[in-house]
Structure formats: structure tokens, C-alpha cells
Q: What sequence folds into this?
């Protein structure tokens, strides 16, 4: 992308109009990671939660060491939606260095959306070390967690969990049976 276009996107990210900032973030999808990440950083602390969430998600699409570090920090954010977006974005990075932090928030976070995002990302990492945590998700009382655990276990190839997964064919919720 031309320098002028990057400058235009930078200006758009400074706009007082949240729509402009969102559109600029969308436009960054075609920009190389090394050019996009400094621009994304401009709105990581945006007052508008939608802009902030989109910026966090955008980091997951730009695989750099800086993005990994930023997303790991964002797992500690006060807002659960930002923590969930960071957990989800870590799965897109597909960097196994995120495994332990994702397992930790899978077990420790109090919000189901954050735990759900962590489970999905653990599946995206396709690392067999996530099996134990994901198996524990099968015992969750939250249907959505049960679904995420089944899908993620399939992604990591947890054949030893098949007996426990087969019990899900008897679940009351059709979405669990379908998964």
C-alpha cells in the first residue's frame, strides 16, 4: 500500500467519528503486518468499545511477535469483551506460545464468553497439550462450553476423549448432539 494511503488510514484512525475508525480498521486487512500493527495500536485504547474490539481482533490477523505480546496483555483487560476478543485473536495467530495463557484463562476467567473464546482458540492451535483442559470443558454445565470443547477436541485430535464425547449423543440440547 502506498505511503499516502497509510497516512490516510492513520488520519482516519484519528477521526472523532467511530465509523471512520472502524472503516480504517477494515481497510487494514490488506496492509502488511509491519505497516498495519502501528496503526492498529492507535485505537487499542479507544473510548468506543466496538472500535477497541475490532482493533484487538485485527491483531490476530497480523502475525507478529508484537501482536502476540499485545494480545497476551489484553487477556488481563477489565472488560470481558476485550478479553474474549484477545483470546479469539490468539487462535488466529496460531502461535503455540499462547497455549499456556489460553489454558489459564480457560480455567480461571469468570466470564463464559472469555472461556468459550479460549476453548475455540485452543482448538485452533491444534496442540495436543490442550487436551486436558478441553476434556474438562465436557463437564461444564454451560452448553456453549460443552460445544466448544467438543469442536476443539476434534481440532487437536483427542481420540482418547472419544468415549466421553460419545456421551454427548444423549445430551438434551440438539446443538451439543450436532457438534
A:
Amino acid at each position: 500500500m502506498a505511503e499516502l494511503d497509510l497516512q490516510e488510514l492513520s488520519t482516519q484512525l484519528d477521526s472523532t467519528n467511530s465509523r471512520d475508525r472502524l472503516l480504517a480498521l477494515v481497510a487494514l486487512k490488506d496492509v502488511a503486518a509491519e505497516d498495519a500493527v502501528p496503526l492498529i495500536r492507535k485505537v487499542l485504547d479507544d473510548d468506543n468499545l466496538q472500535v477497541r474490539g475490532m482493533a484487538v481482533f485485527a491483531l490476530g490477523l497480523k502475525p507478529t511477535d508484537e501482536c502476540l505480546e499485545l494480545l497476551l496483555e489484553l487477556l488481563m483487560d477489565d472488560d470481558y469483551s476485550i478479553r474474549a476478543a484477545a483470546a479469539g485473536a490468539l487462535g488466529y495467530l496460531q502461535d503455540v506460545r499462547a497455549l499456556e495463557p489460553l489454558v489459564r484463562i480457560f480455567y480461571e476467567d469468570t466470564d463464559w464468553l472469555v472461556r468459550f473464546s479460549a476453548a475455540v482458540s485452543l482448538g485452533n492451535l491444534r496442540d495436543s497439550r490442550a487436551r486436558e483442559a478441553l476434556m474438562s470443558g465436557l463437564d461444564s454445565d454451560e452448553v456453549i462450553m460443552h460445544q466448544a470443547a467438543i469442536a476443539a477436541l476434534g481440532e487437536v485430535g483427542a481420540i482418547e476423549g472419544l468415549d466421553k464425547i460419545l456421551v454427548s449423543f444423549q445430551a438434551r440440547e440438539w446443538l451439543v448432539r450436532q457438534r
